[in-house]
Design brief:
Blueprint lengths: L3 E3 L2 E2 L1 H24 L6 H28 L7 H27 L8 H21 L8 H31 L3 H35 L3
Antiparallel strand pairs: 1-2
Helix pairs in contact: 1-2, 1-3, 1-4, 2-3, 3-6, 4-5, 4-6, 5-6
């Protein structure tokens, strides 16, 4: 879809969707790398996901530049700007998870890592589904359904985080392993939270802009 609805009018809803596509790509990198985990391949994975993150940053910068230059929008400038920033945070925090595996030289995965990666993939895909319908927020039931689904995914993430940390501290006798995985589980949980933060703000914008 073109980002231009007509001459000199930018389609910011499409730009938000494009920005979210990078979050989905990052989540795919995360899940794929953990499905076939090999620390020796991590530098290559990090190079690829950093390119995704960098491209998303450029798009965010371009979106804000277009906001600064324009005059007429279906939503307030600051609403588009904040949503775009929150989407970019999802991409950044997904990359941050993979950086943790490299930083701490993680040789072997704990089972919950892949569960988290699958949750983040689900959340990112649902986020993209929500943003695809966002331009029709006044009438679309799918926007609200997606927000509810993202809230449920975040709750699953909270439960998984508690279960993961509890098992780590009860079963591991290695202090280094405990330190490393406490940090990595926190990165996973924070990423899940960032997906919900987009949905929560979108919900606030919808309510604000559909009041009688």
């Amino acid at each position: 879809m073109s980002i231009f609805k007509r001459k000199n009018q930018v389609d910011f809803f499409s730009l938000l969707m494009n920005l979210c596509e990078y979050s989905v790509q990052a989540a795919d990198f995360l899940e794929d790398s953990l499905l076939d985990y090999d620390l020796e391949k991590m530098q290559g994975v990090l190079t690829e996901i950093h390119e995704v993150e960098h491209t998303a940053d450029l798009l965010l910068r371009d979106l804000n530049h277009k906001l600064a230059r324009g005059h007429s929008y279906p939503l307030k400038k600051e609403e588009f700007s904040k949503i775009s920033y929150l989407i970019d945070e999802v991409t950044d925090r997904t990359e941050d998870i993979l950086m943790g595996f490299d930083l701490f030289n993680v040789q072997t995965l704990r089972s919950e890592a892949l569960e988290f990666a699958k949750l983040i993939s689900r959340g990112s895909i649902t986020l993209a589904k929500m943003l695809k319908e966002f331009r029709s927020y006044k009438t679309s039931l799918l926007v609200r359904e997606s927000i509810v689904e993202i809230n449920e995914i975040e709750e699953e993430g909270d439960d998984l985080y508690a279960r993961s940390v509890r098992r780590l501290y009860r079963e591991s006798k290695d202090p280094i392993e405990i330190i490393v995985w406490t940090d990595i589980f926190y990165r996973f949980e924070r990423c899940c939270d960032s997906i919900e933060e987009v949905a929560e703000y979108v919900e606030t914008v919808v309510i604000k802009n559909t009041q009688a």
